[in-house]
UniProtKB/TrEMBL annotation:
Textual note on the cofactor: Binds 1 zinc ion per subunit.
A Pfam match: Peptidase_M48
Name listed for the protein in its UniProt record: Metalloendopeptidase OMA1, mitochondrial
This protein's UniProt keywords: Hydrolase, Metal-binding, Metalloprotease, Protease, Zinc
CC cofactor: Zn(2+)
Sequence similarity: Belongs to the peptidase M48 family.
Gene Ontology cellular component list: mitochondrial inner membrane
GO biological process terms, semicolon-separated: mitochondrial protein processing; protein quality control for misfolded or incompletely synthesized proteins
MF GO annotations: metal ion binding; metalloendopeptidase activity
Alphabetized InterPro entries for the sequence: Mito/Outer_Membr_Metalloprot (IPR051156), Peptidase_M48 (IPR001915)
Domain Peptidase M48: from-to ranges: 2-71
Amino acid sequence: MPHSRTVEKEADHVGLMFAARACFDVRAGSLLWKKMSLQEKVMSGEGDETLPLPEFFSTHPDSLKRAQHLDFLLPQAEAWRNDMSCPKLPKEDPREAIKLLSALVDNHVAASKAKQDLRKVPLHPEAVKKS
């Protein structure tokens, strides 16, 4: 199984470099894995106190570790992107959106563990300020 995780990590690296060469916004590469990590958090945080499956049981790397690895590779990907004379990246970093989603998931998991009625939990942090 460790070889499968190694291959997955290499595939993430190669995919990010292809995206850079194709002038995509390489900062978005880690978003999928951050969203997967949040989904795993929701699934493991509801109902009973089940813990997520340890990584050594999986053929794939942990989702959050994959996202962190892709973010670690960003300087190299951005350099490749610049070598292709791609247009400048937008000022808005697509990774910023995940911060709000992460806060919402944390609120959802906390409410679920506290056995709160989730229909009464605000969906957006700004709704708390208005209350």
